[in-house]
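Two proteins follow. First one:
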Amino acid sequence: MVLPSGVRERVAAVHGGSALPERLRLYDDWAADYDQDVAALEYRAPHLAAASLAFAFPAAPAGARLLDVACGTGLVARELHRHGFRCLHGVDGSAGMLERARSTGLYQELRRCVLGREPLPGPAEQYDAVTVVGALGEGQVPTTVLPELLRVTKPGGFLCLTTRSNPSNLRYKRELEAELGKLECCGAWQKLLAQEVEHWERATSEEESTQGTGYISGVVYLYQKCPVPPLED
């Protein structure tokens, strides 16, 4: 199956080395076509991340407060909603993406925030879970944001992160996993899951394809912020 015209170009543009203002403009311009483009790519990260969080929560999640970082058009919110999550807040650096997310009606609050340049809005320790799906990658959100994600998460709360394992993202993935490991070693959180997924999304070039499959691979990470509450008897 051939990818629709323009998908390769739009993906390449936002993952290129453009400066932040230009990259945000590209996302603004992409917002109208984003959902249909990622559907054509068979992008599975929102589904996989939401399923991982749903499995982690010990009770019905309706009252849990979640922050969807780099929320885009709301793909993660749609998946979380299917799992019973209702109290969803979102942030994104692109005004165009936020407009699309707002139209879903799934978020109780949406704010513009350029992660890596400014802190997340709101006080510390206010969310039961934080997600960053799709934005942790080369040319996107820097790995230095991890402490800020921890700051807004409640003790015992969950953080679900994803990244890609395609060749052009391997340097970033190594850097990310080093930072994840440092935070675990210092007792900031504990790792619950690191799930490698082969058919993450369709590759946009032969060079990015995993062993000629036509797809790239990716990984879902799930962490729990320390101190972790004791198990109930």
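Second one, unrelated to the first:
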Amino acid sequence: MDNSICQVYKDEIQSLEEEIKLLAEKYEDNQQESTFFSDEEILMSIKSFQREFQGQSKGHESPSDLKAQLESLETDLSFLMKFTGIQFTSHSKKTVEKTTNRTVQKHRLSGNCHSLSFQLEFQLLEMQNKENVSAVITDLSIIMESGEDSDVSKFVSSTEEQGNLLTFFRSLSSYAEWYEHRRCTFLHFK
């Protein structure tokens, strides 16, 4: 009986040693995962969670407040569409790569500006360091119905090379407005 009791204890000890080994490995994995985030990111997450939790404890905004906010946003959007003439019809975003300080997303936009339609495809590279976030547009591809206008083709080519979306949208808005005026004028004389 002595040997059988000793064997039971040995088996129990071995089982406990294996469990300790598994728990130690799990602890090391958790420690490695937590080092992926900086102290600032962890503090920001905690503060965000606290704000969210306090917001839940105080209660949600009333439906009338949310409706007023939605109406305000719709009014702002309507104003911007009338002011620029740019209306987006579709947008898709796909994250291609994500690391602790670098994110690459692929965007596709389509829409129209007055009577001209356009499609954009580009990658947005966001790099984050301790103080700021910088964003760079790469692989810009623009498809426009420019007809036989070589100036528009040259402009689109140079914009694709530079990757400057702000210049593209400013110029598109101005060009499309005058393109619409010219079209209406020529229709008037036909």
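SUMMARY FIELD: The first strand starts at residue 86 and ends at 98. Strands lie at 86-98, 102-113, 116-128, 133-144.
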